[in-house]
Write a structure and sequence with these properties.
With 76 residues, the chain is an all-alpha fold. It is built from 3 helices and no strands. 7% of the residues are buried.
Length: 76
């Protein structure tokens, strides 16, 4: 008998994963942040090592948005 891993909403772990993703998306939307742009940037920063463990608070949607707004204001 082969082992099958289920990561969809029908399994316990799949349900937890979906709830995490949903929470991230809703958090972004509540802070007027486009979820795909935010998640893409955050994942790129984490995977590349540009953001260190002690800097993770900079990746929260409200902090990320403020930094992007400041950057846009500076570049004009």
């Amino acid at each position: 008998m082969s082992e099958t891993r289920h990561y969809g909403p029908g399994s316990d772990s799949g349900g937890r994963h979906w709830s995490i993703v949903a929470t991230l998306i809703v958090s972004a939307k509540l802070n007027d942040v486009e979820p795909l742009a935010w998640l893409t940037d955050v994942l790129e920063r984490v995977v590349s090592g540009r953001t260190k463990y002690h800097e993770l608070d900079e990746l929260l949607p409200w902090t990320w948005k403020a930094a992007k707004d400041d950057e846009a204001a500076r570049t004009g």
